[in-house]
From TrEMBL, chains A, B:
E.C. no: 2.7.4.16
Catalytic activity: thiamine phosphate + ATP = thiamine diphosphate + ADP
An annotated GO BP: thiamine biosynthetic process
Residues noted as binding Mg(2+) 1 in the record, renumbered to the chain: D45, D120
SUPFAM superfamilies reported in the protein's UniProt record: PurM C-terminal domain-like, PurM N-terminal domain-like
Gene3D superfamilies: PurM-like C-terminal domain (3.90.650.10), PurM-like, N-terminal domain (3.30.1330.10)
PurM-like C-terminal domain sequence ranges: 148-295
Residues annotated to bind Mg(2+) 3: D28, D73, D205
Gene that produces this protein: thiL
NCBIfam families on file: thiL
Residues that, per the record, bind ATP: G119, D120, R144, S207
Record protein name field: Thiamine-monophosphate kinase
Extra information: Reaction mechanism of ThiL seems to utilize a direct, inline transfer of the gamma-phosphate of ATP to TMP rather than a phosphorylated enzyme intermediate.
Organism encoding this protein: Allochromatium humboldtianum
Positions contributing to substrate binding: H52, D256, Y312
């Protein structure tokens, strides 16, 4: 048995057992049972060292984040997490690293009732691909294409914190642990996503910044939107920074927020207010959908902001992803 | 829109449309509908440059093989291919490369009625992770754990061809195109796998060599086996090489055969013979399952061969995968 086979044992039984897993890790395929009346929601994402995380990032955080980005995609459809698969590429069979990675992955998987059902561990430059599988009652998933003129636009949590953490780390500055967690250990809004079924008309998770991600909803729905900049939910540090510089690129165009942006018909707005209270999570109305195309970034004085360059100011090697 | 977004367009509609895809590429998740009475079979695999293929390998072949390895896993469960997702990591947004990759991927996907429903394209060292999804009537999937004493052991096709191609390429020797295709463009035995439902008691696909992969069946089934070496199906080149050297490592312990190894209760052996004829594919009885543990490699004179070192003699960087 090779080192890599041994390491595979860390992934043999990760996350809670589920009765719908007929066959888990250890055969050519996993076998899964989908209940009648449920659709399967799937998404795959890769995190690569030096592109999506610093190569010396705590492996526990890499384990967490590699699953969190997929959970955030499930949340954005209103789906309930079920199973994950993991394709892990490692430069060396470092057992300490893998143990920490598995710890971070498992903690988040268990918090969301998700079971790891398959994987592949190979040698190569550090990279993690995770596929998530979720269930959603047929016909109730929340797509990007359902926004209608007059809908309110909401976002959860606060914007730009992860972008600020990254900017400071790239500049070699110290970053408070709580701010760094916003970058390295985002909390996907899984429960919020499910509770917005029947409430939200369209939804997306924020991975590349509000302006760009809301833009995906606008294109898919063939509508436009107005954002009122003074309504954007900002943590104190962000609010001070924006006030001092009039630079909106962090809240509007930086990556890794992993908050949800969703549209809500006026009749459902009270449901959102109740949800915010029930989940103890800020859900802030930041604008509205209109029929005419384009995204209007409106200042408090009525003036307009030019959309900041896509702040996918991730790691240097990825800078071609900027617009 | 970034270069990588543009490149993503090559993957927007790949493979045949399927009515069970409620939502394909382009939202946070794909939405898929599983028919009643079917289980979902999933498997994820990564191919990395320099580990699983030569960095200068024809991208059309990389596209083919990255899907073929997953199709081979579906075949080994007796599952019918349905959907795939693709996590592609590229050092640069090279449109010619991606077009060729997509061509190879699509040709094989279309041949098996498989639709690409989601993906992620990022920058980094060349690596391809593919997850395949298949359907199999509930309770009929063929696992590794069902082999019973007295079952016959069969393999499809011929053994060791890919290993021979790789060995020659690593030595800088010329390789005939047909032999090279066995390494770079394996044909997964998808139809055979499905037609063995109700016939085979256990099955695995051969990715790491017959001795090791049959060993997985033996452990999962808590049985042993005898292989009769003179029955192993070898192409003429392999047969000559083995006869000249008495080195059995290629047919027994080299990677990438992507043939199926399966066990068959005696009553079903005539079905296998009929299947071989119907599919015009050699299905060769190479040994039998016995109650006592271990794998007995029997020579024609009754002597025994020591199991060759695991010939996962892939690319040099992966040499720690040898036993």
């Amino acid at each position: 048995m090779s080192e890599f086979d041994l390491i595979g044992r860390y992934f043999a039984a990760l996350g809670p057992e589920r009765p719908d897993v007929a066959l888990g890790v250890g055969d050519d395929c996993a076998l899964l049972e989908i209940p009648a009346g449920q659709a399967l929601a799937v998404s795959i994402d890769t995190l690569s060292a030096g592109v999506h995380f610093f190569p010396d990032c705590d492996p526990e955080h890499i384990g967490h984040k590699s699953l969190a980005v997929g959970l955030s995609d499930l949340a954005a459809m209103g789906a309930e997490p079920a199973w994950a698969t993991l394709a892990l590429t490692l430069p060396a069979a470092d057992e300490d690293w893998i143990r920490a990675f598995a710890t971070g992955f498992e903690r988040l998987a268990s918090a969301h009732g998700m079971r790891l059902v398959g994987g592949d561990t190979t040698r190569g430059p550090l990279s993690v691909a995770v596929q998530v599988h979720g269930l959603v009652p047929t016909g109730t998933a929340i797509r990007r294409s359902g926004a209608r003129p007059g809908d309110a636009v909401f976002v959860s949590g606060t914007l730009g914190d992860a972008g600020l953490a990254l900017r400071r780390m790239l500049a070699g500055e110290s970053v408070a642990p709580e701010l760094r967690r916003r970058l390295e250990c985002p909390e996907p809004r899984v429960e919020l996503g499910q509770r917005l079924r029947g409430v939200a008309s369209a939804m997306i998770d924020l991975s590349d910044g509000l302006a760009g991600d809301l833009g995906h909803i606008l294109r898919a729905s063939a509508v436009g939107a107005v954002l009122e900049l003074d309504r954007l939910p900002l943590a104190p540090q962000l609010a001070e920074l924006v006030a001092a510089t009039d630079d909106w690129s962090l809240p509007l165009a930086s990556g890794d927020d992993y908050e949800l942006c969703f549209c809500v018909p006026p009749a459902h707005i009270p449901n959102v207010e109740r949800l915010a209270e029930a989940l103890a999570l800020p859900l802030t109305r930041v604008g509205w959908i209109r029929a005419s195309a384009g995204l209007d970034l409106r200042r408090p004085d009525g003036g307009r902001l030019t959309r900041p360059a896509r702040g996918y100011d991730h790691f240097p090697v990825a800078d071609d992803r900027a617009d």
